[in-house]
Amino acid sequence: MTRARQSQVGWSEAAADMDAAQGGHAMGSDGIAVDTPDMSKLLQQYGCGPIRFTGTSDALYERHLMFDNVADLSTLGPRERFEAVARSVRDVLSQRWVLTEQTYARQNPKRVYYLSMEFLVGRSLTNNLLNLLLDPVVKRATADKGLDWIAVLEQEPDAGLGNGGLGRLAACFIDSMATMQLPAMGYGLRYEYGIFKQTIRDGWQVEQPDNWLRRPDPWEVVRPEEKVEVKLGCSFEVRGGTLGVIVGRPSSLLGIPYDRPVVGYGGKTVNTLRLWAAAAPDTFDFQAFSAGDFVGALAERLTAESLTRVLYPDDSTSMGQGLRFVQEYFLVACSLADLVRRFRLHNSDQGIPNWSKLPAKAAIQLNDTHPSLAVPELMRLLLDEARLGWDEAWNLTRQTLAYTNHTLLPEALEKWPLPWFALLLPRHLEIILEIDRRLTEEVQARFPGDDGRVERVSLIEEGAERKIRMANLAIVGSHSTNGVAAIHSDLLRTVTVKDLAEMFPESFSNKTNGVTPRRWLLLANPHLARSITNAIGDGWVTDLGELERLKPLAEDKGFRDAVRTAKREAKSRFADWLQSTSGVTVDPDTIFDCQIKRIHEYKRQLLNALRVVVLYNRLRENPDLEMAPRTFFFAGKAAPAYHLAKIIIKFLNNLAGAIDGDPAVRGRLKVVFLPEYSVSLAERLIPASDVSNQISTAGYEASGTSNMKFMMNGALTIGTRDGATIEMAEAAGEDNFFMFGLTAEQVAGSRSWYSPHWHYDNEPETRAALDLIFSDHFSRFEPGIFEPLRQTLLTGGDHYMHLADLKAYLEADNRLLELYRDPDEWARKVIVNVASSGKFSSDRTIAEYAAEIWDAKPCPVP
C-alpha cells in the first residue's frame, strides 16, 4: 500500500500501532465485557453463538452486510460496508447504552441536560471504536477479511450539526461527561443540511447544501413514541408561492427525537445526545390535493419540516431571522418537555410530581443565548401546567437553569423583536414582561434615581423597534452565569453586563474551556500519543495533568527526537492526504503555519494575510534574503450574508494564486486555503502544524479551543493576549510563546484617538503591502474587487486594529523564525507546550461545572 493511500485518513495510517498508543489496552474488566451471558443470549438469537469478540464482530458484520442490503455481497461497495461495521459497533454498545439509562432510572441521580444549538461531533465510527477500546481488535478483524479499512472510514460524513468552536466545545463536553460517568444528556437539533457545504469557485466561497443525511445514519435511533407537541400562536400558509402568516389561528409542530450514543472512554457509560427533527401533525388536506392544490395541501408539512433543514439560516432577511427564532424555541420546548416528562416519571408520589425536587434532580445548562427561551418556557410549564405560584415557580426556574456566555460582541448577544413574541409566543411575552416588571422594581429600590441603570438592566431594549435582550433574560433567569476564559469572564462582568453583575455578583464565575484529549491527541495524533505513553504511561488519556511529567524530558535528546519524528510523520501524512484528495502539493519540510477558524474580522485572518504580503514583498525586493520556507494554511467558513468575510476568503485565494505564479518566491512561500473546514480536516491538519495563529483583536475572543488543540499537538503559538491564549502562555511560560500586540485595555483605551492612517504614513512595510493590494496586483483580471479592504483598513477606521498590531506581529514572526533555526531549542519549547496543556482538558472544565454549578455526581453503571 502506498503512503498516499495509507494517509487518506490521518490517524489510520498508524492503526497497527494503536495498541501501544493506548497503553496496551485490550478488552477486559475495564472495558466492555462483550461475552457476557446476556450478550451471548442475544448473539445466539442472531444465530452467532457464544463466541469471542473477533468471531462475534465477524458474525454481526456479515449479518448486517447481508440482511440490511439484501444483495449479493460481491456487489456491495465501501458505503454498505461502512454501514455494516458501524451497525455492528452499535450492536456492541447498545447493551451498555440501555443499561446506562436503566441505571439512571433506578438510582434517580441529579441529571445534567446540556442545551446547545450546535454539536460538532465529527465522525463517530473512529471515535466510538477508540472509546470502546475496540480499535485494535476491529482493525485486526478487518485486516483478516481483507477489508479496505480506509475506504470504509471515508464513507462516513462529518455530522452536519455545527459550525465552529461553540459546537465543537459542546461535543467535547458531552464526551467528558460520559467519560467521567456523569448522568447527562445533550439536546440539539437534527439539521438535515448542516450549515452549508463550502466550495471555492474563482476564489469565492460558494454555499451548497451539505446533505450529510442522504444515506442512512447508522448511529441514530428514532424515538417517535416520545415525540413532543410544540404550540405556536399563529399558523402558516402558502400564498402566491410565498409563506404567509395567519394571525390568531394557533398551530402545532411535532418534535421527533433522534438519539445518538455518546460513549465514554472505556465504554463504561454510554450517554445520549438527543436531536429534534421538526414534523407536522398527522393532517393532510385530501380534498385540496385531489383538486390539484398540491402545494396548499402540503403547506403545513413543508413549513414544519423546513424548520430543521439548515443550521443558521441567512439572517440578512426578516424571514431568515424569524426561522432562527422559531428554531430556538423549538429546541427549548422539545427539550424541556422531554426532561420534565423524565422528572415526573421518577419524582412523583401517586402521580403527583414533587416540583420542589426539580433543582435537586435536573441541572439545565444553556450553551450561549440561543436556548435563553428556556427561562419563560420553564416558567410557563411550572405556572400553567404544574399550577405553582409565581414566587415558587421563579425560584425553581432560577435554581435549575445555568447560562454560559460565549461572546462579548454586541451583535452576537441576541435580541428578538417584541412583536414576534406577541405573534408566535404570546404567553411567553406575558411572562417576560412580568419578569421585567419585577426586575425593574428591584433595580429602582436598590438604586433609586438611577434611570440609566434601569434601562441597561431591563429585558426590553427600547427604540424604533422594541426588542427582548436574550442575554439579560438568561442572566436574570438562572442561578449561574459563567464566562469561558479568565479575561472573557472579567470583561463580561466589568464591561458587557456590568450592571447585572453588580446586582447578582454571586451568580458570575469563570470556567475556562477545554478539549477532549481522546479525540484531539490519542485519536488524531497516534505517533505523538505513542511517544507520550512510552515515556509516562497512559494515565494522561483520562487525566491530562499527567502530561506535566513530560517537562523534564525536554532535556532528553531521545524524547526530543521522538517528538520531532512524530511531527514529521504527521506532516507527511497530511501532505500525502492533501495531494491525493485535492491535487494540491505541499512540502512537509516547510514550516506549516496555520490559522483555521470561522472567518470573521475580529479573528483577523486579514492581519495574517497582511503578514504574508509583507514577507512576499521582502523576498521580491531581496531574493537572497535568508528565510525558512513556509506554507501558510487557512480554513474556515464565512456566514452566507457576511460579505466582507467572503471578500477575505477571495483575497486569500488570490494571494495564493499570485504567490504560486511568481517564480521569485516559488518554493519559499505558499498559501493554501482549504475549503470545507470540518472536524475531520482539523484532525489531520492540527497534528501536522508547526505554528498556530491565535491573533484575534484583544478583548474579542471569548476563549478559543483550536488554540488548545494546537498546543496539545506540539504547535507553537504566535498570538495576542486574548481568550484562553493568555492562560496557555501562563501555564507554559511566555518565553515558550510568541506573544504580541495591544492588550484588551489598550484596545479599549485607544478607541477615541486611533487612526490607521498613522501606520500607513509611518510604517514603510505596512504602506508597501497596502499599496500592492490596492494596485490590483492580486486582482489583475478583477480590478477594484478589494476596495472593501481599503474601506475596512483605512477609510473605515480599522475597527479591529489590524494595522495597529501588524508591526508587532512581524517582530514576533521574526523571533519565531530565529528559533526555528535551532531544532533542539524548538523541540524543547514544543515539549514544554505539550506538557503544559493538561489544564485545557474538557475533563477539567466539566469537573468544575459539576462541582461548582451543577452539584452533579458520577453515577457509575454496574
UniProtKB/TrEMBL annotation:
Positions where N6-(pyridoxal phosphate)lysine occurs in the chain: K709
Pfam families per the UniProt record, alphabetical: Phosphorylase
Any one GO molecular-function label of the UniProt entry: glycogen phosphorylase activity
InterPro entries: Glycg_phsphrylas, Glyco_trans_35, Pyridoxal_P_attach_site
UniProt record, GO biological process: glycogen catabolic process
SUPFAM superfamilies (alphabetical): UDP-Glycosyltransferase/glycogen phosphorylase (SSF53756)
GO CC annotation terms, alphabetical: cytoplasm
Function: Allosteric enzyme that catalyzes the rate-limiting step in glycogen catabolism, the phosphorolytic cleavage of glycogen to produce glucose-1-phosphate, and plays a central role in maintaining cellular and organismal glucose homeostasis. Phosphorylase is an important allosteric enzyme in carbohydrate metabolism. Enzymes from different sources differ in their regulatory mechanisms and in their natural substrates. However, all known phosphorylases share catalytic and structural properties.
Family from the record: Belongs to the glycogen phosphorylase family.
Protein name stated in the entry: Alpha-1,4 glucan phosphorylase
Taxonomic source organism: Skermanella aerolata
